[in-house]
Specification:
mainly alpha; single chain
Length: 245
């Protein structure tokens, strides 16, 4: 019995044209990763991984399935990068447990005091220094993206993006959506000036981390830390709002 080879979705020339056209998308995605990288790995090292995701997207994208190639490629590139980061730097179980305790204490204080409780009180309850608390806040954000146990890690990298558009929602859902937006913006207003600027430049202006660093006068790795801590704070505020509903 003769087995017929599966026909290619598109010609090699068309595939190569897609890859060439969207290669800058790889640099864009790598340049906007908002969490620290494993020791010995820099963003340039992830370019090749992202490019492999782009190649797979160009080989498998089916135009009649509805998604644009840019959307399809974005998901494939980002997924390939996150898979590589999970492989290189899985979050240890002990770290995950500590981060769960951090989130629980933060939410407990939020119910007692305010949506964004003072970090000093959170640190006192966890018996950790301000430096240790800041590192854990960054890790809390990173673990939500890189943890091999987090099935939702490959969604959007934006807390604001998770709020989506309420045009197609029913009145009750729209009201909850507006309340979530208010929670996020209240939390943003409670950030320090540098963190607020970083959030605006990242989400509203869509800048790369190196460009944000140039504007703030800090290194790219410092921008990563600032954004990671801010995003963790915003996510905790959203989680608390959802728990109260």
């Amino acid at each position: 019995m003769t087995v017929l080879a599966k026909p290619e979705v598109r010609s090699r020339a068309d595939r190569d044209a897609l890859i060439e056209r969207y290669l800058p998308l790889v640099r864009h995605i790598v340049g906007r990763l908002t969490y620290g990288l494993p020791r010995g790995i820099d963003r340039d090292d992830l370019q090749a991984t992202g490019a492999m995701g782009l190649i797979r997207a160009a080989e498998t994208w089916e135009e009649d399935k509805g998604a644009s190639f840019k959307t399809f490629a974005y998901t494939a590139i980002r997924g390939a990068i996150l898979d590589e980061l999970r492989r290189l730097d899985p979050v240890p179980r002990a770290t995950r447990e500590r981060l769960r305790r951090l989130e629980k204490q933060w939410q407990g204080l939020a119910r007692e005091r305010a949506p964004t409780p003072p970090r000093g009180e959170v640190g006192a309850r966890l018996s950790c220094s301000p430096e240790e608390l800041e590192a854990d806040l960054v890790a809390l954000h990173s673990s939500s993206l890189v943890s091999i146990d987090d099935d939702g890690a490959d969604s959007d990298d934006s807390v604001l993006g998770q709020l989506g558009d309420d045009d197609d929602q029913d009145p009750s859902a729209r009201a909850e959506h507006r309340e979530s937006i208010e929670v996020v913006y209240r939390a943003i207003s409670n950030l320090n000036e540098q963190a607020r600027r970083a959030v605006v430049l990242y989400y509203d202006e869509g800048l790369l981390l190196k460009d944000i660093g140039a504007l703030l006068g800090v290194s790219e790795s410092r921008v990563c830390q600032i954004l990671a801590r801010a995003i963790a704070t915003l996510r905790l505020a959203l989680n608390e709002q959802e728990a109260c509903c």
